[in-house]
Amino acid sequence: MIKNKPIYILGIESSCDDTSAAVICNGKILSNVVANQEIHAKYGGVVPELASRAHQQNIVPVIQQAIQQANIDKKDLNAIAFTRGPGLMGSLLVGTSFAKSLSLALNIPLIAVNHMQGHVLAHFIEEENQQKPPFPFLCLTISGGHTQIVKINNYFEMEVIGETIDDAVGEAFDKSAKILGLPYPGGPLIDKYAKLGNSKAFKFTKPKVDELNFSFSGLKTGILYFIQKKTKENPTFIDENLNDICASIQHTIVEILFDKLKNAVKQTGIKHIAIAGGVSANSEIRKVLKATENKFGWTTYIPKFEYTTDNAAMIAIVGYLKYLDGSFLEEPTSATARLKVSEA
Ligand code: KG4
Ligand code: ZN
Description:
Layout: E1 8-13, E2 18-25, E3 28-36, H1 48-69, E4 79-85, H2 89-106, E5 110-114, H3 115-121, E6 137-142, E7 147-154, E8 157-163, H4 169-179, H5 187-194, H6 217-233, H7 237-268, E9 272-276, H8 283-296, E10 299-301, H9 313-325
Parallel strand pairs: 1-4, 4-5, 6-9, 9-10
Antiparallel strand pairs: 1-2, 2-3, 6-7, 7-8
Helix pairs in contact: 1-2, 3-9, 4-6, 4-7, 5-7, 7-8
Bound molecules: 5'-O-[(R)-(carboxyoxy)(hydroxy)phosphoryl]adenosine and zinc ion (ZN).
């Protein structure tokens, strides 16, 4: 019944350094506005205090733009979904407080969303030519803050079966890029230069970690020592070999990810495999995942580029699914910096 009438939900995302708002109608995205915070590039990483201040400045215009682009009036909204966590506390509080105030002003329900569930459930946004994964499926969730293999039993039942014991894969990309003198966030730049390089040019040691878990801090240190040694011998080593270095780093990271993903498939017998999170924008990861279809008979699910890095469309789809489920926020709940993917 409820599925037939238009349900408009506003999604608000402010967990890290992007302020974003989106409007979704019955699973279809009508708008998805993202304001990136340029300020952090200067510091080589996200500065939490500056991030909250930028959210504060961006949130009203971003939400107004999302409502305008969706071609609706704010009075048409049925509910407001916001990122409750995990993320930077100061940043989360801006989105949370704004969502609470707007829901009071419009007298509509609030829906709390787990950011990590948002990355995963972005696969359920209605899109042409985009297949939705059937349950259960595995999702490799890779971002600046997380690296997890998650078994998705249904929309809200998620089980982490492997995760990083130190740095996230996005951090591995960003920290390696920093060592090479590239600006933050370095992941997309490594991806860009790697396309022109030889991935076998340099060899980096892969970590040995138990079961389905990951580790990236040793790789980062290995890269740092390698670069220090090489630039001592030749001060222009980085400039002369940037493409090859990036290709070799990326190749090593992708191998680490896929070694574990293959083990996860073996262990669970599940061959429906999705990727999610900012790092899933990486072209090599997409290519290698696609190749597993022919190679191993996996069915793969690759999100549209704009739903990979932090965005509010992914918060809005979780909001819609929770709306259908009647999961509204009934008691005052605040933002929380730490939240497991299995928690609502
Ligand atoms: O999901 P996301 O936007 O934010 C977090 O929740 O962390 O992920 C951001 C991360 C950054 O580390 C960024 O460098 C990385 O995603 N990233 C990439 C690419 N695009 C974004 N890493 C590798 N290749 C890319 N093309
Ligand atoms: Zn994220």
